[in-house]
Amino acid sequence: MKQTPGSHLATKQQPVAFRGGGFAPVSRPWMGFVVFAVLIAVLEAGTRIGLISALTIPKPSDVFNTFVELYRSGLLWTHLVPSLTRFVIGAAIGTALGVSLGIAIGLFSYVRAGLVPLIAALFPVPKIALLPLFVIWFGIDEASKYALIAFGTFTPMVVATYGAVDNVDRGLIRMGQSFNLAWFSIVRKIVLPGAMAGILSGLRIALAIAIILLVAAEMLGAEYGIGAYILQAGSLYDLERLFTGVAILSILGVFVNSAIGLIEKRVLRWRG
């Protein structure tokens, strides 16, 4: 059978794999569990055979048993509920104020000129060092703990938010102006969606700082809370209880990070 000149080329054509994924991350949540399982197994084996001294790191199985006892006795919720309350209230106040001020700095030149130097001066100040000052101002009760967590969350959220607003594509804003969109519509439909990725990245950092400050605040003048529990365990050199408290904080960090990840999937799904 006689072939046409194009038929020979057509028979050798191969499908080309799609290579335009744009470095989109592939979700593999099981990898995190594998890493944790391997790390715990190494620590358990190391402590059992004597490579790791029991005076420095307890066996993970003992830490788990201590956690189970804490749960069964009801002390877990006695310490966890006050900590979560302080964390949620303080972080919510700091995040709301930080995002609001960060958007104002990003949108208004006079606000930027007046407040950016102040934020730059406050941002590097160690927040834990201000804890005694907050106790003097707000007392040793809950108000000082809320204030410390809020302040520690506030400054990174301001910086992250106005940086995210600055990084919004100006071409999109000019396009909106060329179509005579109102100022509020440009902010709501272009600026805020474009800045949301940076704001959520800043939120991850701010909430991690909030957990650190939560522990510091509870170690000073708190009867109940994860920080107070860790302080009591450390004073008694009870490593199982101490590492149990640390593990609870780590689990809290994982839940917070996962919650932000779910928010990102919902809010930023327009990125594809």
Automatic annotation (TrEMBL):
Gene Ontology biological process terms in this record: transmembrane transport
Membrane spanning residue stretches: 30-51, 87-111, 118-140, 146-165, 205-230, 242-263
Chief localization: membrane
Membrane-topology annotation of the record: Multi-pass membrane protein
Entry's Gene Ontology cellular component terms: plasma membrane
Compartment(s) of residence: Cell membrane
Signal peptide positions (record): none
Pfam family, one: BPD_transp_1
Keywords associated with the record: Cell membrane, Membrane, Transmembrane, Transmembrane helix, Transport
Every ABC transmembrane type-1 domain range: 80-264
InterPro entries per UniProt: MetI-like (IPR000515), MetI-like_sf (IPR035906)
Family the UniProt entry places it in: Belongs to the binding-protein-dependent transport system permease family.
Full protein name: ABC transporter permease
